[in-house]
DNA sequence: GTTGAAACAGAAGTGCT
DNA sequence: AGCACTTCTGTTTCAAC
């Protein structure tokens, strides 16, 4: 799909997903390239929008969010939830999906009262179905380059 | 909840979620603190596990993942899917939740055949329900400090 | 909290192979 | 494409305030 991605790029992408603040020199040491070579590759990966940016990974619980919930909303036509979703800080993921449930969201709340307030507001857009997250097995796992995965044989 | 988080920390966390590679000097300019003061605060936020790390944000589509799907798995007792989930590179999120569906996963696939292979493997752990993502409204929205949000009045 | 200095590390540009 | 070299910027630690 993207013929320009080689093993060096794959490894750089992997390392930057583990630690986005790793220096170009350190990346070069790990992939056996010089620092300018790494810098040039990263610039190209950023320019081609393969690297969209670099984000600090924040621990919600450490900030007081005791509850994570997955809320499915069977959205009704003509109810524009996109704007609400963008403005509601507790909704950190929101996808429109196929099937009965028009939207799936991941929501953070300090406590059950807080969660209920959010559910009440989401009910304006359709019937909701809430599932509390008990365990987060993986969240934001590093993305691998698919072609390099499949062409290993 | 965390009495040590003030407006400076909140702003630093916000900026680092937008650009994790921003320099401490630049952060200092934006929050009106000196660079050593910013460095000390970040060190404290990292030590207290509020900042868990820094991740490159990779564009799945640019790497050839044309399909994102939400798969719900009604897991049956005694089927340990956690290990499979960890080892399957296509599963990038996985949560155990309350309710009928024991697990909710976000999955990347190159095409429908690729998606079907993953669903087939997940069927070993229980009956699955797959919804294709049509629109990603928000994914990984920046987390705000809840106490500072609510105590604005 | 601040500024300023020194030592070190990293980023970016240049030229060369 | 790659590397070596230089220069500028940033980080860290220290001092004194």
Automatic annotation (TrEMBL), chains A, B:
One Pfam family cited in the UniProt record for this chain: HTH_AsnC-type
InterPro entries, sorted: ArsR-like_HTH (IPR011991), AsnC-type_HTH_dom (IPR000485), Dimeric_a/b-barrel (IPR011008), Tscrpt_reg_AsnC-like (IPR019888), Tscrpt_reg_AsnC/Lrp_C (IPR019887), WH-like_DNA-bd_sf (IPR036388), WH_DNA-bd_sf (IPR036390)
Keywords associated with the record: DNA-binding, Transcription, Transcription regulation
Residue ranges occupied by any HTH asnC-type domain in the UniProt entry: 5-66
Superkingdom, natural source: Bacteria
The protein's name in its UniProt record: Lrp/AsnC family transcriptional regulator
Organism: Undibacterium danionis
